[in-house]
Amino acid sequence: MSRLLVVLCPPRSFSSLISTMIGQHPEIYGFPELHLMIRETVGEVMAWERRCERYTGPPGLLRTIAEIDHGAQTAETVLEAANWIEDRLDWNSAWMLDYCIKRATEVSGARYCLEKSPSVAFLPVALERMRQAYPDALYIHVTRHPLGLKKSLEEFVRESHRFTPEQKQVRLDASMGAWPVAQRNLLDFCASLAPGQYIRIRGEDVLRDAAATLAQVAEWLGLRTDAAAVEAMLRPEESPYATLGPPNAAFGNDPKFIDKPKFRPGNPRLRSIDGFFESAEGQAFDAPRRDYLAQLASCLGYQ
Amino acid sequence: MPEAPPLIAVRAPRLSIEPGLVQQRLLLGDEPLAVGLMKKGAKKMALVADVAGAPVALWDGAAASAAFARQEGPGIWCAMAGGPLLRVETAASGGPTVVERLATGAPAAIGHVGNTLWGLWPGGPGKVPEVAPLDPEPGARQPGPEPGPAGRISALAGTGAGALAALEADARGGFRVHVLEPDGWRVMTEAGAARYGFNAAVVAAVPWGAGLAVASGMDLTARARVPGLAHRGEILRLAPDGDFDILAGELRVSPWGLKVPLAGARTEAVRERGGFTHLSAAGPNLIAAMETESGHALVFRFSAEGEAQTLGQVAEPIEDLAVGPDGTVFALLGSPAEP
Question: How far is CA A40 from the centre of its chain?
Answer without folding.
Answer: 19
